[in-house]
Amino acid sequence: MTSAPQPSDGLLSDTWFVRDLPVLRAIARLVDAPQHGGSPYLLGAVVPASGLPKADVVTAAKALATAGYIEPLTNHAGDIVRITGISAEARRLAGLWPTPQGEWERLLEQLTARAEKAPTDVERQRWRAFAEAAAAVGEHDGALLMSALIGGYVPRAR
């Protein structure tokens, strides 16, 4: 396993970024690929897709299943042999679905780009004002707004 340096404060090494997330992303790519058609696939297909050793993939798959990120099929011994699907949160973590924070960042980028490329001074000023207002709202409230938009829920006025 490609492990991160051991922390000196007694905490365990990071397994999310070096093992679990790469395996989750490999699984997500397989699940999302049209050639697989959403059918269950062997855990062995994840090994080359992740670039990690088989032992690491097996350990990561167990951790991901325990956390509810993947839906595993097991054999009689309890070993994961196939994966039938992934959760909505796994799709977000793998980058297949949007996150509120990511969409807020994309909105700010779009507003800035539109301000820079506006054909007239009046439009440029309007886009800049919009971009400045959005930045003033802040990352936290912006992510809450994007969460509502992504989820299709717009809160009522008070």
Describe the overall structure:
Helix content is 57%, strand content 9%. The protein folds into 2 domains: 16-94, Orthogonal Bundle (Arc Repressor Mutant, subunit A); 100-151. The termini are far apart. The radius of gyration is 21 Å and the shape is elongated. A 3-stranded antiparallel sheet has the order 1-3-2. Helix 1 packs across helix 4 and helix 5 (100-117) packs antiparallel against helix 6 (121-137). By secondary structure, it is mainly alpha-helical.
What is the topological layout?
Elements: H1 16-32, E1 41-42, H2 46-50, H3 54-66, E2 70-74, E3 80-86, H4 88-94, H5 100-117, H6 121-137, H7 139-151
Antiparallel strand pairs: 1-3, 2-3
Short characterization:
This protein has 158 residues and is mainly α. The chain is 57% helix and 9% strand.
Low-confidence regions:
none
Question: Could you name the CATH class of the largest domain?
Answer: Mainly Alpha
The whole-number mean of residue pLDDT values reads 88
Structural class per helix/strand content? mainly alpha
- Backbone shape: elongated
CATH topology of the largest domain: Arc Repressor Mutant, subunit A
Element-by-element helix/strand order: HEHHEEHHHH
CATH architecture type of the largest domain = Orthogonal Bundle
Secondary structure tally, helices: 7
| Helical fraction | 55-70%
Largest sheet geometry: 3 strands, antiparallel
